[in-house]
Amino acid sequence: MFRPAEDRLDYADILAPPAGYKCEFAIGTTYSLDLEALIGVPLALFLGEEMEGTLLENPVYVLEALRKSADKFALFCEGGQIKVPNKANPVFALLESSIFEVSLKNEKSFHPKVWLIKYMDANEKELYRFIVLSRNLTFDRSWDAAVVLEGEVSGQKTLKNRPLIDFLTYLQGSTNDRKKKKLIGSIAERLSYVHFQTGDKRYSDFSFFPLGIGEGYNKDSTSFFDNYHDLLVFSPFLSRDTVLELDGLSLKNAHKTLITRRPEITKLTNELLSSFECYCLKDTVVDGEEAISESEGAADLQKQDIHAKIYFKTKYGEHNIYIGSANCSKSAWNGNVEFMLRLKYEKWGFRISQIIDELFGRKNKDYDERQNPFERVIAVPEGAVEKEDIQERLQKAIKRLCRSRTTALVIENNGKYDINIQFDRRFISADVDLTIAALGGGKSVKLESTALLPGLSLLELGEFYIITAKIGEDSLRRVIKIRTEGIPDERDGMVFKSIIKDQNTFLRYVAFLLSDDYLLAALEQAGQKAASAKGWNLHGYDMPVLYENMLRAAAKSPEKLREVDAIIQRLNDKEIVPPEFEKLYTTFLKASRRIKT
Predict the structure, then answer these.
(1) Which element (helix H / strand E) includes 110?
(2) What's the pLDDT at 503?
(3) Closest Cα partner for 433 from 470, 404, 465, 466?
(4) Which of 83, 310, 374, 428 could make an S-S bridge to 279, C-beta 3.0–4.6 Å?
(5) Angle (nearest 5°) at CA 333 between 173 and 106
(6) CB of 51 within 8 A of CB of 135?
(7) 3-class SS at 95?
(8) Non-local CB neighbours of 64 within 8 Å, separated by 6+ positions
(9) Residue 337's closest CA among 468, 212, 169?
């Protein structure tokens, strides 16, 4: 379980469809979101490829993944927790229809991290995959954990998925997209007949625990806060009251271990550190990237720490593991929307101490304490005082904005466009300076009950906006999504044209669409550097190869020719789509229809 060199999970692998299957629809949740990381999800789900690396730099490859995924996935995140991208990219506009922000009325957080994916094979056999994670959809490199369950449909109903069905019903209320709301509903109905399996006989049972979604879905329903003999807690963030509560539930001679982040120790007391064996990652691990980097710039260097939320509990012969999104904190178990999975572990003689020994590397005969990534903390640092977190105040101001009933309207103005945005004044924090700008470009303006963003181009229009919050010298920037009326229909076509700028690029895109292997086609076209912010500037293409690909598609995969047609209609530009190609394409399309008949 704790051998990362052998058991490390790859996010793309756990999303990608099994051999012979295609993704029909995917529903995901995260607390914080990085749009650049999200672009990798369609690559994994719909092209079955990696989520990072050189292929992500190929804008044509990314464009096709986003086109395929537009109607086939929905991602829910906490309102006000979308990271501002490092670089503006027109393709972010193609993600608008798939992202839904959730802002809770009780000012708690939407914090679950799961995926539910429906796959289907050529014979319309359904396969469902449910993934429970502790990781957000970002490029953070902290230590996380995940569990993957797969299930098939049978004629026999199951009540085990009732909490999962109720969770999907809850998510339905956070989307105004009728089509996706209907798809989520249809999957929820189907789950009554889906029987998930762990794939490991040592895990004899499991239970789903969505928290905070309604009556009956609270911490009492999880049995987590029952008494125990031994306890191991992984939690990056803590509340003293919650740790005290768990401490008070221990039975006689219980052994309790807490693994957390070093800054969280200040929330505890020396009495708690005497009751729990408390560990943190060593500084050499937390700052390891900086120590081993040969690069002078620190732009891509990140600190590493634990981010997994895992709880091991034993009582007599019962062994349970809880994994998911809930920290060992008051908010997590009392108000936040979270998702936890409980696994019942069957193994006589199982001891949590074995997990700890494996985690610390003590199983080896040649154990060396220097190789242990963790170190024990036996006392709260002297003089440690919790300080007011100005960044938290800024974050709350942005989150509060997301709870406003905000509307935006695009108005054409002499070939350019203005956006008029209306905020509810009650949700604008008076003690924080706020500005707003379109993610696509343009200048920022002061955020008031009425804000006007003037003089934007068609390509700069969208539903993503950058909010900047300031208190003195401190600032925080986040992206929020505002439903925006009046965006011209041709905006998406303009996004495509920003990448497919000329006939050569168009012909390469067509070849990519018609290929039997997306990855091979992408690599074949990678002889010249693919991506730059300025577009894909390639020269020439082997027309006989394109002709051969069209002939094969007409005979075996006529649906690919229809995909080409969708691109032609989207571009609607004779300067980009060569007339001779369109004539050739029409001939093949007619031939494919005759073959089908």
Answers:
(1) none
(2) 85
(3) 470
(4) 374
(5) 45
(6) no
(7) helix
(8) 47, 509, 512, 513, 518
(9) 212
Residue type at 5? A
Token couple for 476 = 């925080």
pLDDT in tens, 155-196: 999 999 999 999 999 999 999 899 999 999 999 999 999 999
Residues whose CB is less than 8 angstroms from the CB of residue 70 and which lie 6 or more positions away in sequence, other chains included: 94, 97, 98
Q: Is 576 helix (H, G, I), strand (E, B) or coil?
A: coil
Phi, psi of 66 (to 5 degrees): -70, -35
169, 187 contact by CB (below 8 A):
no
Structure tokens given for 120? 């289907």
In this predicted structure, the answer to whether residue 24 has a pLDDT above a threshold of 90 is yes
**In terms of C-beta density within 10 A (0-12 exposed, 13-18 middle, 19 or more buried), how is residue 541 classed?**
middle
Over its C-alpha atoms, the chain yields an Rg (Å, rounded) of 26
Q: What is the DSSP string of 422-443?
A: E--GGGS-TTSEEEEEETTEEE
Q: Which residue type, as a one-letter code, is found at position 70?
A: A
**Secondary structure string (H, E, C) spanning 358-412:** HHHCCCCCCCCHHHCCEEEECCCCCCCCCCCCHHHHHHHHHHHHHCCCCEEEEEE
Spatial strand order of the sheet with 374-377 comes to 203-211, 338-345, 318-324, 310-315, 228-234, 250-259, 277-281, 374-377
The pairs formed by 383-391 with CB atoms below 8 angstroms and a separation of 24 or more are 384/265, 384/266, 385/266, 386/266, 386/267, 390/471, 390/472, 390/474, 391/474, 391/476
How far is the C-alpha of 186 from the C-alpha of 125, rounded, in Å?
A: 16
For residue 13, give the H/E element and its range: helix 11-15
CB atoms within 10 A of CB 285: 19
